[in-house]
Design goal:
about 40% strand; disordered N terminus; 12-stranded antiparallel sheet; alpha+beta; 4 helices
Length: about 210
């Protein structure tokens, strides 16, 4: 029994320690973080990154994992190029969205007529340029410090967007202030987590990508 209690105390200490790694920022600290992120992303003209996406659906036994490359060109061009397990691309270019799956004919959507996709585009583009997504008029935002990095939890204020997104959690690199991970949770508690790796800033990207 003594051995069990000792193990229990050790596990509890580890749990409390892990909780302690996330510390809510004060309003002053949050404002300073927003300013640093905004200043850093103003200098971001383009970005190339690999990514891994995990989709968790409650009715599936296993999560669905895919991977590919992300290309971003300021101010509002973004290309999600999925490579595994299947090949397809999703491109946002201003008010237009194009999807190309395998060798099928590309689909084009005018975002001006689709509020949901327009909101999604603003969200995804904003996560690349971190400062653009920290909009207190659109989200209720709570900021945290996590070790050497930062995180922010964003809850949509817009009722139309909140029907599809419960909250967005961003993890920002404490040195580059780039978003390293985004987790989008929907009202059913299913979620999509995207982790970015090998991020290259201000590289030359051809217009043909978009």
């Amino acid at each position: 029994m003594l051995r069990f209690n000792g193990l229990g105390i050790l596990l509890l200490t580890c749990v409390l320690s892990s909780w302690g790694q996330r510390k809510m920022l004060s309003p002053e600290e949050a404002a300073a973080l927003k300013q640093r992120v905004t200043e850093q992303t103003k200098q971001l003209r383009s970005l190339e990154s690999t990514f891994t996406q995990t989709k968790h659906l409650d009715y599936l036994e296993n999560d669905v994992t895919s991977s590919g490359k992300l290309y971003f060109k300021a101010p509002d061009k973004i290309r999600w190029e999925y490579v595994r397990p299947s090949s397809y691309t999703v491109i946002f270019n201003g008010e237009l969205m194009r999807m190309n799956e395998g060798g099928k004919k590309a689909k084009q959507i005018d975002l001006a007529s689709n509020r949901r996709l327009k909101g999604l585009n603003a969200l995804l583009t904003g996560t690349v340029q971190g400062g653009r997504i920290f909009d207190d008029t659109q989200f209720q935002i709570t900021y945290y410090r996590e070790g050497a990095d930062y995180s922010a939890i964003l809850v949509p204020k817009d009722q139309a967007l909140s029907r599809y997104i419960k909250q967005v959690e961003l993890t920002l690199d404490g040195r580059s202030y780039l978003v390293r991970q985004i987790k989008i949770t929907d009202p059913t508690q299913d979620y999509t987590r995207i982790t970015f790796d090998t991020q290259r800033q201000n590289v030359s990207l051809p217009e043909s990508l978009f």
